[in-house]
Specification:
about 50% helix; alpha/beta; 6 helices; five-stranded parallel β-sheet; 2 domains; Hypothetical Protein Ychn, Chain: A; globular; single chain
Amino acid sequence: MKTITTLILSALLVSGSMLTGQALAGEYYGKQKVVYHINYDNPKAQAGALRNIQNHINAVGAENLDLKVVLHGNGLSLLLEPDSLQRLKKFKHANADQNMTAKVSDLKGQGVQFAVCANTVRGRKVDVMTDLYDVDDEDIVPSGVAEVAKLQLEGYAYIKP
């Protein structure tokens, strides 16, 4: 009986310290403004970038984080629907499968904003409504590179995973 009580108390202490650790992490890191820059089409690297973003949210707390993802060039493949690949010959990969879109939706639900480069959309003849997953007109920025620079000037930390 004493062993069971000790195990229960240990479990409660560990779970309590984890909750306290999460609360303290937000205080430790403070408020952050971050831009993640994705301009590559490697599906594994893009999945890794989304994991980094989720880990960042977990560490800092969504309420303490203003996080934007800027996509341009081959980076649009992150949101490119697989059915569109046949028509859009300038892309090698269309990574918006069910797994990737679920991750993107989850991140958006936590306040992450995805910005898509209008230059890439125009230059590669991408139809935003049919070729890209969950992209609206307000997600389009004039230039991906210029958007990254603008955000850095506004105090966003730059991360290229």
